[in-house]
Each structure stands twice: as C-alpha cells, then as structure tokens.
From TrEMBL:
Membrane-spanning intervals of the chain: 12-32, 44-64, 117-137
Species lineage: Eukaryota, Metazoa, Spiralia, Gnathifera, Rotifera
Gene Ontology CC terms, in alphabetical order: membrane
Listed GO MF terms: oligopeptide transmembrane transporter activity
GO biological process: protein transport
The keyword Membrane belongs to this UniProt entry's keyword annotation: yes
This protein's name: Uncharacterized protein
Length: 172
C-alpha cells in the first residue's frame, strides 16, 4: 500500500528492510565484506549489532518520538531543519562560507534522524569499548612489552640479525 507510512518505514529500499531479500553479491559484500575472508562469528556479531541498531533502537527512537524524530525520516543521513525539510546551508552561510550568526539564530540548527543518531552513538560506543577491552584484556602485556623494549636494547631478534650487515649510507 503506497499510502501506508508504517509499512513503507519497515520495508523496502527507504525503510528498515524487513522482508527484503537481496541476491546481489555486491550488496552482500558491501557492508559485511566477503564471507569467504571474514570468519562466520564476525558476521554474526555484525548482524546482531545491525539488528540492535536498525531493527530495535531506531524504531524505538522514532515511535517514542525521542528528539522530535517523527518530523524526520526514520533513517536518513541528511540534515534537516526544525520543520523536517532538508537543511538549506545557503541560508546561514556568507559568500565566504562563514556562518552568519544572525541568520543561524533565525533559521535554527540542523537536525539528524533518530536512526542516524543512534547509529552514531553505537559507533562511538564501539570505539570506546575497543579501547576499554584492549586495556582490560591486554593492558598488562602491552605495559610489559613497552617496559622490556626500553630496558633491553637487544631483545629484538630482527635487529640482532640485521646488525651483521653494514649501515646504509645517508646519501644512498
């Protein structure tokens, strides 16, 4: 039904993609990379993250109307004004591409769709979790290797093997 907004939001090319089956190899490998190269468990992790963000968090954000997200598309990477129209940057920029403060106060800030904001939030959270995971699970090893590299100058087997060859002259 072309006039059913909810149906178009959860299906199809511009919605959440429920029920859409894609048989094009390029579509499969565009986001997840090749299933031949990446382990199966990594694909499962990516799919679970996708489902959490796109099929759970984004619809909740939209239908609970967080951040007035019902004025905007459910998922879009475009910037919108307060009325849900595309943000017209020419209204707030001078000819030198500097922000006109008076025009900005009148026109207002740009808004992102709730699904896009949630996607960004999960992306930043994954970067933070990567850093925390590295510190918690590998921190002792990293500190140990760093200290040993400073204290023991001859602990690198590659440097030891290369020491048998003459230095390359600077002019070379």
């Amino acid at each position: 039904s072309p006039k059913n907004v909810v149906l178009s939001q959860v299906t199809g090319a511009y919605g959440l993609g429920f029920g859409a089956i894609e048989f094009d190899w390029n579509a499969w490998v565009a986001y997840l990379d090749s299933p031949i190269l990446v382990p199966f468990w990594a694909h499962i992790h990516i799919f679970v993250g996708f489902a959490a963000v796109i099929w759970i968090a984004a619809p909740l954000t939209y239908y609970l109307n967080l951040w007035d997200s019902k004025k905007l598309p459910i998922i879009s990477n475009s910037v919108f004004d307060k009325d849900g129209n595309f943000y017209n940057t020419s209204k707030i920029l001078t000819k030198e591409y500097h922000r006109n403060e008076t025009a900005y106060e009148i026109y207002g800030p740009g808004f992102l769709s709730g699904g896009f904001v949630i996607s960004y939030a999960f992306t930043f959270a994954s970067i933070a979790s990567l850093i925390v995971h590295t510190i918690v699970y590998h921190g002792k090893t990293i500190v140990k290797q760093f200290r040993s590299s400073l204290s023991e100058k001859n602990n690198d087997i590659h440097a030891k093997l290369m020491s048998h060859y003459p230095e390359v002259p600077e002019w070379w």
